[in-house]
Amino acid sequence: MNFSKLLISWYLQNKRDLPWRNTRNPYPIWLSEIMLQQTRVAQGLPYFFSFIKAFPTVFDLANADEEKVLKLWQGLGYYSRARNLHQTAQYIASELNGVFPQTYKELLQLKGVGQYTAAAIASFSYNEAVPVVDGNVFRVLARYFNMESDIALPATKTEFYNLAFELMPKNNPAQFNQAIMEFGALQCVPKNPDCASCVFNESCLALKMNKVAQLPVKLKKTKVTNRFFNYFIVQDEQGKTLLQQRTRKGIWQNLYEFPLLETSEEKDFDYISSVIEVGFFQPYIPIGIEELNCKAIVHKLSHQHLNIKFWKVRIKGVLESGISLQEAKLFPFPIVIHNFLESL
Questions:
Q1: How far apart are CA 325 and CA 241, in angstroms?
Q2: CATH assignment of the domain containing 115
Q3: What EC number(s) has UniProt assigned to this enzyme (predicted)?
Q4: Does 199 reside within a domain?
């Protein structure tokens, strides 16, 4: 079909030289696909190089401490991806002798691998004719074919999957998948695409009907919850501080943080000092409280906005399990805490 030929021709002239495109080894391909979920290539690329350097093979990743994996992942967000990555590496190394599954259906059984990632690995590594369907693909197909189905609905994904499969040259599915994703990332971008220079500007239905900005259709709105975090950077008479690990499921599982007081709304100095003075740090006695950021730092996650205040609390005596701030910086933190520590 003319669509596929034009698309692939554009891709061969415009594609970026990305390291995971120069191999069929499923390990770096899998690593890159997990990293690039919810992440732009420019942001993910340095992390990819760091991981490949630290863990050249799936065995190296499997044998690593989880804390080291999380520390290298720090700043990339969606930390469950890193934990799943580590656990899947351990499974492949120990149960599959380091050999990745070689079909789409088998790849789907791996932890943290969904339909998109399985399709990417299956087509890029094993040339299996299975289309990838991500945000870029939704956007390109919805605009070119004027598809108004709501992409938030599961049935729509099947509709787009079937269309992509029909368009895909079965003798080179990998190239088609790379091409349509690249086209969405570089040319058919979400806002203000340069339609005048587009290879499809004579055949794109959305352009003809002046609907480019309206497609794809996504009706479901994500409900955002506001949360209010107060972190206490404790300092004893030796200058040491306290850390704790977030072990419960939810955001930042297994990452480290300072002692936390979560409140229903942003609280002022008087409220925070009263909480500390009535025994928040028992048996230690507070001798000074300082507000480190007057305005809350708003850290936006997909479903939550965290309003974060940092407070310095000096205490009398020596912390039993205290560590220096320099030692603390070696632990894996949520990036918002890491950045604040670096700014101190």
A1: 7
A2: 1.10.340.30
A3: 3.2.2.31
A4: no
Domain carrying residue 266 = 225-343
What's the Cα-to-Cα distance from 66 to each of 87, 142, 243, 255, 331, rounded to whole Å? 9, 40, 17, 10, 11
Annotated catalytic sites, by residue?
33
Residues 12 and 159 in one domain: yes
The CA distances from residue 36 to 20, 23, 31, 250, in Å, are 12, 17, 9, 21
* Residues 256-265 pLDDT 10s: 999 999 999 9
Q: Which of 56, 46, 59, 112 is nearest to 82 (CA)?
A: 112
Whether residue 327 is contained in a domain is answered as yes
Amino acid 147 reads M
- pLDDT tens digit string along 76-102? 988 999 999 999 999 999 999 999 999
Whether 246 is in a domain gets the answer yes
CA 121, distance to chain mean position in Å, is 18
Q: Kindly list the distances between the CA atom of residue 229 and the CA atoms of 70, 83, 308, 311, in Å, as whole numbers in the listed order.
A: 22, 24, 5, 11
Q: What Cα–Cα distance (Å) separates residue 149 from each residue in 5, 130, 170, 211, 212?
A: 25, 22, 26, 14, 14
